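hey
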């Protein structure tokens, strides 16, 4: 442990006062905080990360839990604390507030820095013995913050709204719910127990607002923080579970996924179509057919002698290394599907002999697929897996598509850990990128993204998708997307696929996909009008790259997601509290894509002034307006007092810079924005390998100034800039070199 800043004299005085108050109290201190024995329970109160606390309850000698949910950092050493006492209550005090417990009664409370109770007095509860397996549960009750429960935020995506009133903590096909939330009462909480595969749940009393956590096992930890806003809470959660690393540059482009790539000629003809039609694309994502001539759904439990687990299907990839290199020369990266199971009989017999399978982990899931599932949690299995996978990565694979890994709550975490270990053996400075059908807390810190599973094609699904992605962002998954166009069901017509692609411009991951018997979601297969609209949407995605990539660096530093609900930036606007069919990218850009047939929708404009993107048309705030958009138009707005860095037209992100940076200024007040550039591929950005250009707009003087910091100077950086001010005159522009520092006046 690192050093902990404690006032020792004050602590001694505190302990003497406790002892003097009652000889029956059992209150001690350790290097973490304050420990009280309350009946059969050991209760520890301690600071956690900066601004946060930990309340641990254990029975039968159980210590605070060690969890894969938590980032592996020494939290306590970073936090100064003092012992605290308030009447019969004892606990710890930091700059963030106080966490106190009554060692007589088990009552406890959390106060913010102002001394206000954000969690009124609740109770430690009891150790419940559950008659059916797996056994016991620790209960911890939180006092009511309001007379009526109106919902909490950040629990995951198994809900049709942002504000959630039920706890459903599990993973499934496109479902990821987590034991965390932010309460509008002013706090956030993450619960962990002794077994990560049995996550905690909570129950709210609708009439009082009191919430009770139930944690399987004999110990339960609540990570707690006063948090007045959702923004503040999201940053605390990232400190607990981990910050998302910046994905590789290509992952911000358009990703074309397909189940049904027929052969090498089919792949190369599709690539030619993208190039000839000038539709940007940065990756092809391959389903079963990249490694096997048959899906494994009919493989029996013992496996098949000739099934391929770690090889290439030569029908598609007769020369995998050469082909992938050739495709990358045209900007198209390679992502391949993986399953959490094996199909080869020899491999299956071996892992079962070693005890590396998941047999018996969940009898309810004991179907023929799960009987072949492997245990990524076992480090010996991961070493075996690494040995068989490094050659695939060395041949050019850029990312992994992890499908159907819901056999246990943490399968995706340990699966991604295995893939990180493969990367460590092959290219240790390269960024990991994966896309997963679900996730548990903590997997985001490994470089994982997620998609919403096998969704059905319908306007209703499109309308609901942003809610899922926003909820996932609040639950820690900063990079998420969906099967644009829907995985299965009726074929989307040109209007539906166009609108879905337009919405996807503003998803953290823009990826289309469908079942193998469906028409591929290639942009040119729904008629010329749809093709034109989709091309325009994808081109906009690429224009926005410098802005999105800079937000990714902000996400890595702070934990704030790129895709944000309005409530995150407008916390006091009741109208915005549950809006999820329009959203923000960062602080400045508000997307309101058309999500229903007909080309019309309502748009709510929060406080302030807004301008239509690319124009000087002003939209007043604090009102709702009806808008109509042609098939190739997206309702998109920018806050007054914003700076947007935009890229020129390019075919793929390897083409950067491709020309001058377009810096759009939306006036109305002073503004600032920091654009971040780096090599787009390695982890050098974590140790300072970036170029950070901070732009500042003086609204009164109509002056833009900038300063560049950082050593990165690759050939992909912007060296010229076209400054466009979208004011009443309609968009004045100035072209200028992007020097180390400078200033221009744009009238």
């Amino acid at each position: 442990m690192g050093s902990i800043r404690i006032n020792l004299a004050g602590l001694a005085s505190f302990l003497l006062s406790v002892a003097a108050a009652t000889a029956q109290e059992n209150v001690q201190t350790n290097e973490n905080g304050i420990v009280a024995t309350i009946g059969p329970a050991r209760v520890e109160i301690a600071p956690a990360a900066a601004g946060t606390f930990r309340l641990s309850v254990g029975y039968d000698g159980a210590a605070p839990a060690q969890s894969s949910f938590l980032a592996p950092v020494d939290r306590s050493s970073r936090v100064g604390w003092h012992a605290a006492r308030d009447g019969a209550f004892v606990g710890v005090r930091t700059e963030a507030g106080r966490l106190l417990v009554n060692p007589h009664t088990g009552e406890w409370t959390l106060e913010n820095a102002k001394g206000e109770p954000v969690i009124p007095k609740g109770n430690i509860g009891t150790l419940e013995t559950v008659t059916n397996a797996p056994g016991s549960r620790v209960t911890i009750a939180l006092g009511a913050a309001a007379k009526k429960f109106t919902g909490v935020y950040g629990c995951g995506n198994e809900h049709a709204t942002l504000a959630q009133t039920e706890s459903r903590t599990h993973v499934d096909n496109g479902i990821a719910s987590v034991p965390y939330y932010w309460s509008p009462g002013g706090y956030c909480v993450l619960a962990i127990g002794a077994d990560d595969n049995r996550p905690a749940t909570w129950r709210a009393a609708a009439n009082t607002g009191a919430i009770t956590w139930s944690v399987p096992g004999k110990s339960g930890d609540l990570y707690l923080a006063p948090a007045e806003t959702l923004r503040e809470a999201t940053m605390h959660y990232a400190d607990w579970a981990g910050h998302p690393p910046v994905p590789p540059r290509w992952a911000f482009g358009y990703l074309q996924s397909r189940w049904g790539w027929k052969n090498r000629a089919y792949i190369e003809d599709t690539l030619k179509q993208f190039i000839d039609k000038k539709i940007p694309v940065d990756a092809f994502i391959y389903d079963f057919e990249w490694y096997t001539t048959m899906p494994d759904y009919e493989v029996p439990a013992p496996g098949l002698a000739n099934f391929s687990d770690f090889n290439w299907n030569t029908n598609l990839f007769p020369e995998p290394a050469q082909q992938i290199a050739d495709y990358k020369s045209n900007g198209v990266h390679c992502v391949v599907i993986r399953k959490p199971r094996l199909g080869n009989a020899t491999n299956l017999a071996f892992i079962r002999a070693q005890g590396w399978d998941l047999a018996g982990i969940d009898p309810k899931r004991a179907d023929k697929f799960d009987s072949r599932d492997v245990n990524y949690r076992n480090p010996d299995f991961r070493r075996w897996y690494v040995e068989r996978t490094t050659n695939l990565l060395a041949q050019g694979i850029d990312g992994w598509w992890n499908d159907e890994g819901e056999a246990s709550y943490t399968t995706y975490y340990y699966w991604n850990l295995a893939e990180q270990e493969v990367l460590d053996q092959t290219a240790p400075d390269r960024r990991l990128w994966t896309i997963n059908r679900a996730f548990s807390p903590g997997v985001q810190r490994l470089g994982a993204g997620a998609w919403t599973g096998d969704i059905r094609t319908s306007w209703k699904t499109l309308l609901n998708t942003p809610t899922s992605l926003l909820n996932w962002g609040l639950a820690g998954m900063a990079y998420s997307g969906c099967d644009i166009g829907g995985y299965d069901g009726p074929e989307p017509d040109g209007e539906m696929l166009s609108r879905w692609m337009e919405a996807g411009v503003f998803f953290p991951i823009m990826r289309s996909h469908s079942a193998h018997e469906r028409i591929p979601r290639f942009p040119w297969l729904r008629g010329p009008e749809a093709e034109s609209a989709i091309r325009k949407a994808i081109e906009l995605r690429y224009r926005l790259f410098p802005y999105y990539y800079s937000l990714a660096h902000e996400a890595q530093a702070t934990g704030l997601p790129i895709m944000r609900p309005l409530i995150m930036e407008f916390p006091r606007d009741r109208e915005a509290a549950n809006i999820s069919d329009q959203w923000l990218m960062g602080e400045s850009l508000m997307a309101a894509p058309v999500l229903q047939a007909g080309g019309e929708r309502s748009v709510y404009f929060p406080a302030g002034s807004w301008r239509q993107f690319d124009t000087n048309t002003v939209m007043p705030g604090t009102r709702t307006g009806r808008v109509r958009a042609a098939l190739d138009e997206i309702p998109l707005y920018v806050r007054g007092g914003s700076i947007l860095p935009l890229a020129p037209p390019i075919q793929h992100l390897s083409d950067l810079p491709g020309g001058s940076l377009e810096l759009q200024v939306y006036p109305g007040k002073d503004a600032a924005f920091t654009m971040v550039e780096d090599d787009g591929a390695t982890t050098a950005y974590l140790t300072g390998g970036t170029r950070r250009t901070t732009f500042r707009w003086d609204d009164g003087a109509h002056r833009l100034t900038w300063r560049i910091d950082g050593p990165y100077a690759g050939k992909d950086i912007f060296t010229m800039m076209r400054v466009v001010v979208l004011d009443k005159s309609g968009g004045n522009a100035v072209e200028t070199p992007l020097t180390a520092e400078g200033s221009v006046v744009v009238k």
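The longest helix spans residues 379-394. The mean pLDDT is 93.
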